[in-house]
């Protein structure tokens, strides 16, 4: 009986250690990957895109959103690419996408993380999908990417 108690204590200690280690690795690697991926997340700086540019690359537009909630955006579209949700926010220029679009994208992702902790992936105020965890800036467009940036990278690589 004494040995069963010790085994349970050891298992619980290992479990707590594993959870603590994963949490600390996630935050430290997240910080370094955020720093290194910040410049990787900005591509095609000298190009101007429209919804048709992304449609030609295989993105399926689904729903247009009101730009009133995203400062300086000219269009916002929700759609799909390779079975992943990608929201594309368009701006008047690449500079506007950087100055206004990046902070808005970071805010959307931060809000999605907070809402997901509560188990709700819908933003009731706007009705939009908020499962975005990364973004990519391509010219004058900011792409919000579901789960990670992989599909956004593929989409942008196919732009003509």
Provide a concise account of the structure shown:
This protein has 160 residues and is of the alpha+beta class.
**Oligomeric state of this protein:** single chain
Report Rg: 20 Å
How many structural domains in the coordinates?
2
Number of helices: 4
Largest sheet features: 6 strands, mixed
Low-pLDDT residue intervals, each spanning 5 or more residues: 23-37, 119-128
Q: So what's the overall shape?
A: elongated
Distance between the termini: 70 Å
Count of DSSP strands: 6
Task: Estimate what percentage of residues fall within beta strands.
Answer: 15-25%
Percentage of helical residues?
40-55%
Write down the overall mean pLDDT.
78
Helices and strands: which structural class?
A: alpha+beta
| Helix/strand order | HEHEEEHEEH
Strands of the widest sheet, in order across it, are 1-5-6-4-3-2
Describe the structure.
This protein has 160 residues and is of the alpha+beta class. It has 2 domains: 1-40; 42-157. Helices cover 48% and strands 24% of the residues. It has 4 helices and 6 strands. The protein has helices spanning 2-40, 51-56, 94-117, 150-157; strands at 42-43, 60-65, 73-81, 84-91, 132-138, 141-146. It has a 6-stranded mixed sheet with strand order 1-5-6-4-3-2, sandwiched between helices. The longest helix is centred in the first third of the chain and has 39 residues, at 2-40. The termini are far apart. The model is unreliable at 23-37 and 119-128 (pLDDT under 50).
């Amino acid at each position: 009986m004494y040995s069963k108690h010790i085994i349970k204590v050891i298992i619980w200690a290992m479990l707590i250690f594993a959870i603590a280690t994963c949490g600390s690795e996630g935050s430290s690697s997240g910080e370094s990957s955020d720093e290194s991926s910040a410049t990787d997340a900005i591509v095609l700086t000298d190009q101007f895109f429209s919804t048709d540019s992304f449609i030609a690359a295989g993105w399926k537009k689904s729903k247009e959103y009101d730009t009133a909630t995203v400062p300086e955006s000219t269009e916002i579209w929700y759609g799909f690419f390779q079975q992943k949700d990608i929201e594309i926010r368009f701006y008047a220029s690449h500079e506007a996408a950087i100055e206004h679009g990046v902070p808005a994208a970071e805010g959307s992702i931060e809000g999605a993380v907070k809402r997901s902790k509560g188990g709700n992936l819908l933003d009731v105020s706007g009705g939009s999908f908020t499962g975005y965890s990364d973004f990519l800036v391509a010219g004058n467009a900011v792409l919000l990417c579901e789960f990670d940036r992989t599909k956004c990278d593929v989409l942008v690589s196919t732009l003509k």
